[in-house]
Design a protein that fits this description.
about 250 residues, 5 helices, about 30% helix, Immunoglobulin-like, 4-stranded antiparallel beta sheet
Length: about 250
């Protein structure tokens, strides 16, 4: 009996030694308030890599952090120049394009995982999963997806940093990701992945709320909840401002 207990204990310790690490993630701010004059915000995403016993992890890990904003449906139109004029040509609809998407890694993604793993976890802009609505040719879908990514990269809404994560003593990690002034409100998810030998061995999620306050919130809520009244007020305000401007010019 004592021998069986000893063998069971040895087996338990061996299995425990092979267990995957634990990620303890945190963000510098869990709420970002968008007020008048908001120029953007830098988020610090940090945390620790621990083994199941709660001490320093014993292996070398790479870390990839993915910060994703609320998803939204979007229609993307392609313009073509015909007879000297740019007109709308082909278009496609995406059901769930993230309003913001940023990836930071301790190394280039291609040096950490293969394409299949990167696609499963969306570890980078080339593997961002955009869901088209309806049937669409795969080549055309890839072209429109690349166009959307390019447009949002230009607006600072999609980004990738191959050296954006620093790791200290294989215990602490941190990454800095900037949110531009044009970010959408809603819940943002910051998912951290610990990777070793091309395999994701642990992941954890932290969340950030982006909220509009003051007059900006009033405008956003009015436009969403009472679009007709909001439209009428916008037209009335435009007419009034035009009338005031006309009176001022008449007095000059």
């Amino acid at each position: 009996m004592t021998g069986r207990i000893l063998l069971a204990l040895v087996a338990f310790l061996a299995l425990s030694a092979q267990r995957d690490p634990i990620l303890v993630p945190e963000v510098s701010q869990h709420e970002i308030q968008v007020r008048q004059g908001f120029t953007g915000q830098e988020l610090l995403l940090y945390g620790a890599i621990l083994d199941p016993s709660g001490i320093r992890a014993g292996r070398d890990y790479d870390i990839v952090v993915v910060l994703k904003g609320p998803t939204q449906s979007i229609k993307l139109r392609e313009k073509q120049k015909i007879a000297g004029m740019w007109i709308n040509a082909h278009s496609t609809d995406f059901r769930s394009a993230p309003s913001f998407f940023a990836v930071a890694g301790s190394k280039p993604i291609k040096d950490i995982v293969d394409d299949r793993t990167a696609a499963i976890y969306e570890l980078g802009l080339p593997w961002l999963q955009l869901s088209p609505i309806g049937a669409i040719d795969p080549k055309e879908q890839a072209r429109f997806a690349a166009g959307l990514v390019s447009l949002r990269q230009g607006d600072g809404l999609y980004k990738e940093d191959d050296q954006g994560v620093s790791i200290s003593e294989q215990v602490l990690y941190q990454a800095r990701i900037s949110l531009p002034s044009s970010v959408q409100t809603g819940t943002y998810t910051a998912e951290t992945f610990a990777i070793t030998r091309g395999r994701v061995v642990a992941s954890a999620i932290a969340r950030v709320e982006v909220r509009k306050l003051g007059f900006e919130r009033f405008v956003a809520v009015s436009a969403q909840d009472q679009p007709v009244l909001y439209g009428l007020l916008a037209v009335a305000l435009s007419v009034m401002m035009g009338w005031i401007a006309g009176r001022l010019f008449a007095l000059i």
